[in-house]
Amino acid sequence: MTDKVYKVLFLCTGNSARSILAEAILKREGMGRFEAFSAGSQPKGGVHPYAIGLLRNQNYPTVDLRSKSWDEFAGPEAPELDFVFTVCGNAARETCPVWPGQPMTAHWGVPDPAAAEGSEAERRLAFSDAFRMLFNRISIFVSLPIASLDKLTLQKRLREIGGRDKVTS
Q: What domain count does the chain have?
């Protein structure tokens, strides 16, 4: 058993919804074994109010959540990352910075709830769906015996988690 705390970065283009949800979920579900961060290649500058509302409804802390650039995680003072997960297709296709620590990466695409159209109820449902998909993936991730898996097996498992729900967004 290891006392290592794994550092995980969730990436999306705007860092206002999906990556924010993932950061909040991992902070709780990781039970101190993971340090979660989120960022965007083109941050919106604010967290989507539906994301904040959903997290508050589920009793997740929201006070430290903010939209920020991935540049914060690429500089010399950035934390040494163990894992980087893209949660939107745009971020997965972009040329990412070089991350300190040479982290393992995987794409866990989730449809953008901020782009959902329709009534308020339909838009809020899109956020709930994104939350559910991310929660399921993160729950599987935190249950992996990371320290005992070789790198190839771990990378395969990370990619398999991203294939859940057959979503590629």
A: 1
